[in-house]
């Protein structure tokens, strides 16, 4: 029986400790909820104050900025305009020089490309145009003599102007011998 009394005492003691723990937990939870509510209300209040005082602060800062700008303009005065004019003239001169330099470089490049193409005996646009004119003249003579070749459309002439002539493909030695033999 003594063991029964001990187990009963243990049960009542554990039950009362559970109840106290539960009561403490409820109190802690209640305090946390109240604390969270207070933090929320403080945040809402701060937001309201910031809205009300923010516009006033902004307007004050704008006024201070205007006064500082006026003071700076008075101190800098003519110096700033003179400096601005000097910078603009220097930039203008630099642009002119750069433009002249690019023009000269472009001209030198075009001349070198032209010389290289001549060394390679690539016909120029003028050479091809003269060749087309000569072919047209020969076609006209053939028509007069009675052998009517089909006339080339303008599109074919442009394509011919883009393609290198068969004479350009020949080696210089063949071309030179041909020129001597022709007269």
Structural class comes to: mainly alpha
Spatial extent as radius of gyration: 50 Å
Order of helices and strands: HHHHH
What is the terminal separation in angstroms?
Answer: 150 Å
Uncertain segments are 166-183
Quaternary class: single chain
What about the largest sheet?
none
Report strand %: under 5%
**Globular, elongated, flat, extended or rod-shaped: what is the shape?**
elongated
Number of helices: 5
In round numbers, the mean pLDDT is 76
Helix content: over 70%
Total strand segments = 0
Number of domains: 2
Describe the secondary-structure layout.
Elements (H helix, E strand, L loop, with lengths): L1 H118 L5 H21 L8 H9 L3 H4 L2 H10 L2
Protein name: Phasin family protein
Pfam families: Phasin (PF05597)
InterPro entries: PhaF_PhaI
